[in-house]
Design goal:
Elements: E1 8-10, E2 18-20, H1 28-42, H2 52-66, H3 71-75
Antiparallel strand pairs: 1-2
Length: 86
């Protein structure tokens, strides 16, 4: 969020072409709203993550909650984690 960047392409080989469309947002709440808007738009049935269950989704849900956004109301996904400390 320090500066706007332009769309760009990453083409490591002719077989793998990647054109990235950039959304420059002014603040965190706008980034989260854009993310939720995209999920509502494409309606994915599968999310593929590396560390989604133990970090990504709980982090997104927590940050959204702190900013007054209910993730379940936005995209219909409810994450519930119970951490037990011994």
């Amino acid at each position: 969020m320090s500066q706007d960047i332009d769309d760009f392409g990453y083409h490591p080989t002719t077989e793998f072409q990647g054109n990235f469309i950039i959304f420059n947002e002014p603040d965190e709440i706008s980034v989260l709203n854009r993310f939720f808007e995209h999920i509502r738009e494409v309606k994915p049935s599968i999310f593929v993550t590396f560390n989604g269950d133990s970090f990504d989704w709980p982090f997104i849900e927590t940050r959204a909650g702190i900013l007054g956004i209910n993730m379940y109301e936005q995209i219909g996904i409810l994450i519930h984690f119970e951490f037990i400390i011994h």
